């Protein structure tokens, strides 16, 4: 590309298709590409954009509910919210977000991070949820920024 040239799309592969940026382990390319394949126009990406931005709204609302339920010490509700957001994030291929949500789901169910060992101390479970939620929000912020850049959003 010549200096001063501006390219708004991701680089093209040899077959002319647009490749995704290297998002590392944050976003599963295969899963996200399946969402992108549903777009009518590659330029606008209306369909995938609506799904991704709908997820942003959903995640922000869920974080508020998680914060509130953490204050209420409601482990069952935290588990449910973790499960809910885990499914949405998995659909988009947001691996790290999904993994943190799964841990919150397990901790809220009074289990260890794998969901196999019971935890009888609610204070420990709540502390683990609090730690996982902080990591979830950080990784979500990273993924949100990457996706906003992908969609050429000025808020990125």
Can you count the beta strands? 0
Cα end-to-end separation: 24 Å
Shape descriptor: elongated
Please count the helical segments. 5
Helix content: 55-70%
Largest sheet: none
Gyration radius, rounded: 18 Å
Are there runs of 5+ residues with pLDDT below 50, and where? 1-17
Secondary-structure-derived class: mainly alpha
How much of the sequence is in beta strands?
A: under 5%
Sequence of secondary-structure elements = HHHHH
- Average pLDDT for all residues: 88
Write structural notes for this entry:
The protein is mostly helical and 156 residues long. It has five helices and no strands. The longest helix has 29 residues. The N terminus is likely disordered.
Summarize the structure.
By secondary structure, the protein is mainly alpha-helical. It is built from five helices and no strands.
Secondary-structure blueprint of this entry?
Layout: H1 29-36, H2 46-72, H3 75-92, H4 95-108, H5 122-150
Features:
5 helices; mainly alpha; disordered N terminus; 156 residues
